[in-house]
From TrEMBL:
InterPro entries referenced in this protein's UniProt entry, alphabetically: TPR-like_helical_dom_sf, TPR_rpt
Organism: Phytophthora nicotianae P1976
SMART domains: TPR
Endpoints of the signal sequence: none
Name of this chain's protein: Tetratricopeptide SHNi-TPR domain-containing protein
Pfam families, per database record: TPR_8 (PF13181)
Protein origin, superkingdom: Eukaryota
Length: 212
């Protein structure tokens, strides 16, 4: 499968000018047929499944169907990502986090908590396994991996922030405070745009004031 289809799918999901539902339906039909026709488990198939999930999640606001495709994408990812890579870690954390937020939107906090914890666990596992600056292997880290790791920190920061909301709903105040502190540290050491970082910092500080 060529990368051009995945590029088109990803650009559709991230476009600031949302396509009409008719256009989205057409793209989804083609994507779903492509997923069935191509089969197998590789990065291209994962990206198609993940892209379909994003359309259902972000643009059609159909959480139930989005979950189905996120879970399919996750199964493919687990099959193909058998080594420690920045891409594998980023997509695993992102997919777990997306599932958690979907369940939050569907008012299913217990399932959401599970996937928040899975996302955080996947992030921590990658941090434990990834080479550090003191390791000789760190010399082999590419610029693209460094960029992905910065994006990974930004994603992990937002997952921690959303998880804190889940904890607060359970009256787990101390844990929520700790999780928001971690979110801030991650965000401040990530690729998060300055405006988004300032907004997150303000939200967390306001939250702390309410908790005191």
């Amino acid at each position: 499968m060529s990368g051009s289809w995945n590029s088109r799918l990803n650009s559709t999901t991230s476009s600031s000018n949302a396509a009409s539902k008719v256009q989205l339906a057409c793209i989804l039909r083609i994507s779903q047929k492509c997923l069935i026709w191509y089969g197998g488990t590789d990065a291209d198939v994962f990206e198609v499944a993940f892209g379909i999930a994003r359309i259902y999640d972000d643009q059609l606001e159909d959480g139930e169907t989005a979950i189905k495709y996120y879970e399919e994408a996750l199964e493919i990812l687990e099959a193909i990502s058998t080594e420690v890579t920045a891409w594998g870690a980023y997509m695993r954390v992102t997919t777990f986090g997306a599932l958690a937020v979907c369940y939050e939107k569907l008012s299913r906090p217990e399932e959401a908590a599970k996937y928040f914890e899975d996302a955080i666990g996947a992030y921590e596992e990658h941090c434990d396994q990834a080479p550090t600056l003191d390791d000789g292997e760190a010399d082999d880290v590419s610029d693209s991996d460094v960029s992905l790791l910065a994006d990974l920190n930004a994603t992990a920061a937002m997952i921690h922030y959303h998880y804190a909301g889940n904890l607060l709903a359970q009256d787990r105040w101390d844990e929520a405070k700790t999780v928001t502190e971690i979110a801030l540290v991650l965000a401040e050491n990530s690729s998060m745009p300055a405006g988004d970082l300032e907004e997150l910092q303000q939200c967390i500080h306001d939250l702390w004031l309410e908790m005191d």
